[in-house]
Amino acid sequence: MATLPNCETLTLQPEGIALMITLNRPDQRNAMSLHMVQELSAVFDAIRDDDTVRAVVLRGAGGHFCAGGDIKDMASARSASTKDGSDPFRDLNRAFGTLIQQVNETPQVTIMLLEGAVMGGGFGLACVSDLAIADKSARFGMPETTLGVIPAQIAPFVVERIGLTQARRLALLGLRINGEEAHQLGLVHELVDGENNARAVITETLRQIQKCAPVATATTKSLLHRVGREPMDQLLDQAATDFASAVRGPEGAEGTRAFMEKRDPSWAADGD
């Protein structure tokens, strides 16, 4: 595994094919400070090209996922100097947008365990997960407009996740919803009841990820993200090129041999 940065606001625990990341500011319900944003970004930078890390599991400490942005950071930005022409509010907000895009596009499969408060920026992070698992305790919301601000960086990702119609309702009314409704909207894939149930779902998910070739998985994720962002002919041309590379590559050769020999491929050797 790649060398991981030292973190003050996160705990990092490698576990098999996965890196477990815990947002660790429980006294603030894991509100996303600029320092946490920078540390989380550094972690995703460190593992981006590490194919031994095939999944990331992200959760929060103390029974909450993330309560949104850190109000203290906003207060600091209000008092910051703007003599050089920069805008500290813009820079603070845009830094989180950069992070959420980074998480969205990471080659690893991202699994998020959502408990307690999943608000604002936490809601946005949930929207870029590959698999979202919500405890029945989870409460989701986009409360920005009730605070006199806007969901500037998360709005595009919310629309992509649940569609414009539902994003309008949640964002413009500042609504809060429970895990059941989040599941109905397609924000959440699985509902669980308690830590043991959550751990069982995560374990089974990681077992399934292990059955899938890491490079093929990363290439597939990249393909899915390009849908709707480039002309279809161009997308399909590149997809065909990527398919040919996969077939001729080591994973394609190993997968074919394993199928013919009725055995698990090498990347799944420790799986079921």
From TrEMBL:
Family designation: Belongs to the enoyl-CoA hydratase/isomerase family.
Protein source organism: Tamilnaduibacter salinus
A Gene Ontology molecular function term of the record: catalytic activity
Top-rank taxon, per record: Bacteria
An individual GO BP term: isoprenoid catabolic process
Annotated protein name in UniProt: Enoyl-CoA hydratase
